[in-house]
TrEMBL record:
Residues 3-258 form the NmrA-like domain. The keyword Oxidoreductase applies. GO terms for molecular function: oxidoreductase activity. Residues 35-52 have a biased composition (Low complexity). SUPFAM superfamilies: NAD(P)-binding Rossmann-fold domains. It comes from Aspergillus nanangensis. This is NmrA-like domain-containing protein.
Length: 314
C-alpha cells in the first residue's frame, strides 16, 4: 500500500503511523507543509535506510494536494492545527483523495470517542470534518484511542522512550513533578463514581491504523475504536504506586468544581480550557473507547498500563 500520512514528518501520531507502515512493508508518503526551502510540489527523501519520501504541499491548493496524492491508495490525516485551518485543510485533502481515486480516508481523530467531541471546544472542528467525510464518496473511519498512555511516561527514568515523541505537558496524571510528590486528579462522575478511562500507547495507535488499512472489509464510516487498556482511574493510580515505588496522591475533584474552574478560566486560554474539558469528559465516562478494532484485528497486541509502567518506570 502507498499511504499518504499528513503530519507524518514531525507529528507524534503521524510519525507512529509512518513507522508502523514501514514495519509492515508498506510505503508511507509523508505530506508536510511547504516551507521557503521546500516549496509545494517538492519532495525530500529521508537519509535513513527507509528512504521515506516527504512531499511538501500547500493545503490550501487542490492542485498541490492532487499532485501529492496521485499514486496513493489511502490518506490518513494526523494533522493537529490549533487554528481554523484544521477543517478546510482536511476537507481539501479529502477532495483531492476523492479526485485521485484513493480508496480510504481517515480524518485526524486519535482521542476521545466521537460522541464526546461536543463537550470539548477544540474538538468541535472534528465534528465538522466528519460531517463532510461521511458524506463523501470514499471508505472512511474514525479512529478514537482514548488518552495517550504516554502521559504516564512524563518524568519516567526512560522518559524519551516512554514519550515516543509526545511533547505535551501532564494532564490529570502528574507523575513527574520535579518539585513534589506525584499526584493524580481524579474527576468524580455526577453519580459519585470514579470513572474508567481508555489509554493507548502512541506506537500501538500506529499498529492499529496499519491493521485497519490491511483489513479487506470496508471501514464503512464506522468508529473503529482501539484500546490499549480501559481501567478505573484509581486502578491506574494503584499501578502507578506499584511501579513508581512511591505514594501517589489522589486529588478528587467533583464536576461542580470543574465547572467552576472552567468559568474562571481566561476565555483565551485555549489549552487550559481543553485540559479542563477533557477532565470533565473523563468524569462523565466519555473517555471510554469501544475496542472495535481490537476485535477486528486481534493480531495487534497493545501494551496495557501495567506493561507500560513496568517498561519505562522500572
Ligand atoms: N489522545 C490523546 O491523548 C491526544 C493527545 C494529543 C493529540 N491528540 C490528537 O492526535 C491527533 C494528532 O496530534 P499530534 O499530537 O500527533 O500532533 P502534532 O504532533 O502536533 O503534529 C501535527 C502535525 O500537523 C502539522 N501541522 C501543524 N500545524 C499546521 C498548520 N498550520 N498547517 C498544516 N499542518 C500543520 C505538522 O506537520 P508538518 O510540520 O510536517 O506540516 C505537525 O507535525 C490530533 O487529532 C489530536 O487531537 C490526542
Amino acid at each position: 500500500m502507498h499511504v499518504a500520512v499528513a503530519g507524518g514528518r514531525s507529528g507524534t501520531i503521524g510519525a507512529s503511523i509512518v513507522s508502523a507502515l514501514l514495519a509492515h512493508n508498506h510505503t508511507p508518503i509523508i505530506l508536510s507543509r511547504q516551507t521557503s526551502t521546500n516549496p509545494s510540489g517538492s519532495t525530500s527523501i529521508s537519509s535513513s535506510p527507509s528512504g521515506v519520501s516527504t512531499r511538501y504541499v500547500d493545503y490550501d491548493s487542490h492542485d498541490s494536494l492532487v499532485h501529492a496524492l496521485h499514486d496513493t491508495t489511502a490518506v490518513i490525516s494526523a494533522l493537529l492545527i490549533p487554528g481554523p485551518e484544521f477543517v478546510p485543510y482536511q476537507l481539501n485533502l479529502l477532495r483531492a483523495a476523492e479526485e485521485v481515486g484513493c480508496a480510504r480516508f481517515a480524518p485526524s481523530e486519535f482521542a476521545l470517542p466521537f460522541a464526546a467531541h461536543q463537550a470539548v471546544d477544540i474538538d468541535h472542528a472534528k465534528v465538522a470534518v466528519w460531517d463532510a467525510v461521511k458524506a463523501a464518496n470514499i471508505d472512511a473511519a474514525l479512529f478514537p484511542c482514548g488518552m495517550f498512555m504516554n502521559y504516564l511516561g512524563i518524568g519516567a527514568p526512560r522518559v524519551a522512550e516512554a514519550l515516543a515523541g509526545f511533547r505535551e505537558g501532564p494532564l490529570m496524571f502528574h507523575l513527574g513533578d520535579p518539585e513534589g510528590a506525584p499526584w493524580v486528579e481524579v474527576p468524580l462522575g455526577r453519580d459519585g463514581e470514579v470513572p474508567s478511562l481508555t489509554m493507548t500507547d502512541i506506537r500501538d495507535v500506529g499498529e492499529f491504523v496499519v491493521a485497519a488499512l490491511e483489513m479487506e472489509e470496508p471501514w464503512g464510516g464506522r468508529e473503529l475504536g482501539m484500546v490499549g487498556e480501559t481501567l478505573k482511574i484509581t486502578e491506574v493510580v494503584g499501578l502507578c504506586e506499584r511501579y513508581l515505588g512511591r505514594k501517589v496522591e489522589v486529588r478528587v475533584v467533583e464536576m461542580v468544581s470543574l465547572e467552576e474552574r472552567l468559568r474562571r478560566l481566561d476565555p483565551g486560554d485555549v489549552l487550559a480550557k481543553m485540559d479542563c474539558q477533557y477532565t470533565m469528559a473523563c468524569g462523565n465516562g466519555d473517555s471510554v473507547v469501544e475496542p472495535v478494532l481490537n476485535a477486528l484485528c486481534p493480531e495487534v497486541r497493545p501494551l496495557g498500563v501495567k506493561g507500560f509502567l513496568e517498561k519505562f518506570w522500572m
